[in-house]
Specification:
The complex is a heterodimer of chains A (333) and B (54). Chain A has 3 helices and 21 strands. Chain A has helices at residues 3-10, 192-195, 247-255, and strands at residues 36-40, 46-47, 54-58, 64-70, 80-87, 97-105, 122-130, 134-142, 147-155, 160-166, 180-190, 204-205, 225-235, 258-261, 265-266, 268-270, 273-279, 289-295, 300-303, 311-316, 323-330. The termini of chain A are far apart. The model of chain A has no long low-confidence stretch (mean pLDDT 91). In chain B, strand 1 (3-11) and strand 2 form a beta hairpin. The chains are: A mainly beta (333), B alpha+beta (54).
């Protein structure tokens, strides 16, 4: 094969040559909250380890797993997201559900021209492996218009690149704002309420029974593992090679949604109170929830999302200045 | 998320909610676009109450 042919095969079929991936932290390199979390199951509906990747849960599965940032990956990847089953659930209730997802703002999805006659297809790609063969379901869910499309994919014991091409959708535009518009979801476990219908191969109004048809259960055995990295979503009918970016770029993209400050923040006397303000590294998606991770609990914390100098203040109802050793700000979707 | 308590908090003209969520104390903006506030609204819908500010 000529070099020109190889180059042509690696070029994206639609859109730009850089900034193609609308997902954030697809190489699993940023994990501000923690690098490991245990005992996750029906209570897991939140962000636990790797930034921007959420475990969504419904129902009361008995299954439990450990979620880690793992140092294994296919060539060119230093990290992956690993799930390891620690408690099996072979008696699946109808309403049980476990998904791994990333939620994307509508204003970052306008390139897909969804809901217009010029709508673009969606190309999803990622690397996966597991302890044994398995089949799971990948769904694109348009939360603005309650529409979805799904495909199954296979996992083997070796790292394998999965490339899924989802069709364009001329119905239902994404909102052009900072709210949750598109959910990229991998269904890892589901009850009959989610898998008793027919998998939608083209975009259709959301029907819960159709969402996870043909997918297996990650909780079928305590031997079960699932590794994933190099996750990419781009406009076009064909997936292009994963677009690696610098750690700084990816960290700052993550910090729009969650930021953990590790440097001391000192308050100083202000009348009969003590107060300080500090800026966030980037404007956050919206006004964040704030929490002190260590140090003296303040009377109040309050933040904003103003660009370009989004900030927060720390307030103590006393005149004694104090240090807040670190804090976390959360504006996740 | 497991919410143990929630109370309105008013300081320096700001009003938010001080809530203990998953054993962590959060100061949550009163904004329906914030995931923590959405969880507090679900918690209220289950019959719980946000306490008034001190």
């Amino acid at each position: 094969m000529s070099n020109a042919r190889k180059l042509a095969d690696n070029l994206p079929t639609e859109g730009s040559l850089s900034g193609r991936n609308v997902l954030i932290n697809g190489a699993m390199n940023v994990a501000q909250r923690a690098t490991s979390a245990t005992g996750l199951g029906g209570n897991a509906d939140s962000y636990h380890t790797i930034d921007r990747f959420k475990l969504g849960a419904e129902g009361t599965t008995a299954g439990r797993l450990t979620m880690t940032q793992d140092s294994s990956g296919p060539s060119g990847f230093a990290n992956s997201l690993k799930l390891a089953c620690t408690t099996a659930d072979t008696s699946i209730g109808s309403g049980e559900l476990l998904v791994l997802s990333q939620i994307i703002e509508g204003q970052d999805l306008q390139r897909f021209a969804k809901g217009t006659s010029d709508a673009k297809p969606f190309a999803v790609s990622f690397y996966v492996k597991g302890n044994a063969s398995a089949t799971y379901v990948c769904e694109l869910f348009d939360g603005d218009n309650s529409r979805h499309v799904c495909k199954t994919f296979s996992v083997t014991t070796d790292w394998t690149r999965v490339e899924l091409s989802f069709p364009a959708d001329t119905t239902g535009a994404f909102d052009d704002d900072n709210g949750a518009s598109l959910y990229l979801q991998i269904f890892l476990h589901s009850g009959s309420s989610f898998n008793s219908g027919t998998l939608p191969a083209t975009w259709a109004s959301k029907t819960n029974a159709n969402r996870a048809v043909g997918g297996g259960s990650f909780f079928d055995s305590t031997a079960r593992t699932f590794f994933i990295t190099g996750v990419q979503l781009e406009a076009g009918s064909q997936a292009s090679p994963f677009e690696h970016t610098s750690h700084t770029d990816e960290f700052l993209r993550c910090a729009r949604y969650y930021f953990k400050n590790l440097a001391p923040v000192y308050t100083t006397q202000y009348g009969s109170n003590a107060i300080c303000t500090t800026e966030f590294p980037v404007p956050m998606r919206n006004t964040p929830a704030l929490s002190v991770v260590s140090g003296t609990a303040p009377t109040a914390l309050a933040g904003n999302s103003y660009a370009p100098h989004a900030s927060m203040y720390v307030y103590h109802a006393s005149s004694t200045g104090d240090a807040v050793s670190n804090y976390q700000a959360d504006a996740e979707l | 998320m497991n919410i143990k308590s929630a109370q309105y908090n008013e300081v320096l003209g700001d009003r938010n909610i001080k809530a203990v969520i998953d054993d962590v104390t959060w100061f949550v903006p009163i904004s329906e676009d914030n995931a923590h506030y959405q969880d507090i609204l679900k918690w209220v819908a289950e019959g719980n109450t946000i306490a008034e500010a001190d």
